[in-house]
């Protein structure tokens, strides 16, 4: 595969976005450069007498700053380790893929590292007759900014480490990705697959995966250009998020009229990696939400209320999906309107199954989970287009079957089949009609 293929650039971008060391290293370099600049300006800029320091005082202040920044770096790293432990134990290991992208944490680490390098650069230049007064003052200001950023980081960490806050962030991320259509990614024409879909027969050529991995992204625009260059139709064999074993078909080439395509170049338009990412895969966000709800329902955690709170965000996500245009496959054309690329899509039923199946299977023993699930499905019946309601009704039938098996007693079964947006205590409505006020007969 070409060294700088699209997939290589995509993987590099993924590495940079999830890396926790690149920005701090840049902060170190920036701090050292700013320290040299402060030393150069010290002889040019006039410093008030009250801001001047003796060599002993300046050395003590800078030494304290260097030690404090190293300690704060260790403190933030310790918090990161705690997040990893919590995510793998009570949340979802898949969430770590999103947590690594937290810009505030990288900013705090970079600021601490830069302040350390700035103070150390000044410290090594202090002598009996040389005191960087301006630099010492700026170093003190850097410490003040660092402490403020630390407080902001702690406030964000304390509030955002809760499962419900994480669910909200994951939901918003998934909806943002869902709003970016395949057509917008490729800046191309989206055809109606029923009317203008190309007739596909036996492919003239196939492109196979060399190493295998999960499909993380597609260069849609590159695929359209490549298909136009070879005057063919490219069919992507797997959806974004699928795992492709080594040697499996990655792309199918139909109707080449300008000679065989270059497999290595075409394979470079599909990014494969060790795990799924959210860039072009909104279902991955829903996968993380379902994982958090399932972990909360496990016997080790046994926290159905958290599962109910996560179901709130799953419902939000499903409402967004239900109002979006979904296709079983996307037929993309060049600017002349000729079909060039076929990309498999994900339908409404698949999103719905992903969002509610595991919560139903693992949470049927909890009354509040059953009641919240019914309220979720009832809300979808009212909020999605008519064509998508049969899938919701099928999920209601599956929920009724699970409740019938789990609750043989009539009263508990009735409670479990009553929708309640709070799970328990929200004044739910019966599946046979809305709840009546106390005293009505």
Describe the structure.
With 441 residues, the protein is α+β, with helices and mostly antiparallel strands. It has 17 helices and nine strands. A hairpin with a 5-residue loop joins strand 8 (329-333) and strand 9 (339-344). Helix 2 packs parallel to helix 5 and helix 12 runs antiparallel to helix 13. It is flat, with a radius of gyration of 29 Å. Pfam families: DUF2254 (PF10011). This is DUF2254 domain-containing protein. The chain crosses the membrane at residues 20-41, 61-84, 104-123, 135-154.
The profile of the biggest β sheet is:
6 strands, mixed
Radius of gyration: 29 Å
Tell the overall outline.
flat
Q: Please, how many helices?
A: 17
User: Helicity range of the residues?
Assistant: 55-70%
What is the spatial order of strands in the main beta sheet?
1-8-9-4-6-2
Task: Let me know the average pLDDT.
Answer: 87
**Are there runs of 5+ residues with pLDDT below 50, and where?**
433-441
Distance between the termini: 74 Å
The total count of strands amounts to 9
H/E series, N to C?
A: HHHHHHHHEHEEHEEEHEHHEEHHHH
How big a fraction of the residues is strand?
A: 5-15%
Question: What is the SS-derived class?
Answer: alpha+beta
Pfam family, one: DUF2254
Organism: Streptomyces variabilis
Transmembrane segments: 20-41, 61-84, 104-123, 135-154
Keywords: Membrane, Transmembrane, Transmembrane helix
